[in-house]
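Researcher: Structure for this, please.
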Amino acid sequence: MNKIWKTAIIAGLIITVLLLSVSCLGTTAPAGSGNTTGTGEQQSTWDSLWPMLIFLVAIFAIFYFVMIRPQRKRQKEHEDMMQNLNRGDRVITAGGIYGTVESVSEDSVVIKVESGTTMRVNKASVSLRRDEMTQ
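Model: Predicted structure, token format:
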């Protein structure tokens, strides 16, 4: 599972538990209120949960549009770039090595660096094309 999703799920569970515990503690009827049936107390607890649930949904929506969606978009663009690598493309690896693609296989790329040396690197370690960087 993606690290961002794990963090979001854990944060959401913690926030939910905290909000539910605060709402349950804050809506109990006082001892001398005369409420003996308990139905009024239960109803007021559920009524107070709706604003919190709406708040949680809003937080998750903001979290999705601010963090998860842009990350997915960058990941998809990187995958498209890796699929479209061709011989002669000028690239930069994740390690900061500049080179030109000599050959492409299913899971690796052979790049030629400035000194004429060739290196075989994992296809996923190619960060970007230098042509795209200048645009």
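Researcher: Any notable elements?
Model: The helical segments are 3-26, 39-83, 130-134. The first strand starts at residue 90 and ends at 93.
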